[in-house]
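It is worth pausing here to work through a concrete case rather than discussing structure prediction in the abstract. The textbook approach is simple: state the sequence, then state the predicted structure, then interpret. We follow exactly that order.
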Amino acid sequence: MQLTRDDVEKVASLARLEFSESEFAEFTEQLGKFVSFVEQLSGVPTEGVEQLAHALDIHSVLRADTLRQGLPRDAALANSPNHDSECFLVPPVMARKS
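Step two, the predicted structure:
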């Protein structure tokens, strides 16, 4: 597939990018090379190759998600600059209509 300037202009428009004439010519050539390389990959025989979610055999390094007791309400509100007996109080984000 040969990439055209119209293709690059469409991608630039979708990405809200503006380029000069020389940049369009340069990017058309560079993106064309990239697309050509990806097309080469489609010719690689992959029959019998197991699908992978990741190229490396890795496992989650995060701790197990375990249930535990949370902070008591008084302790959670203790360092709050503004709160009532139950909740944090914050300034309104949206102005009220008069």
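Step three, interpretation. The chain has a mean pLDDT of 88. The chain has three helices and no strands.
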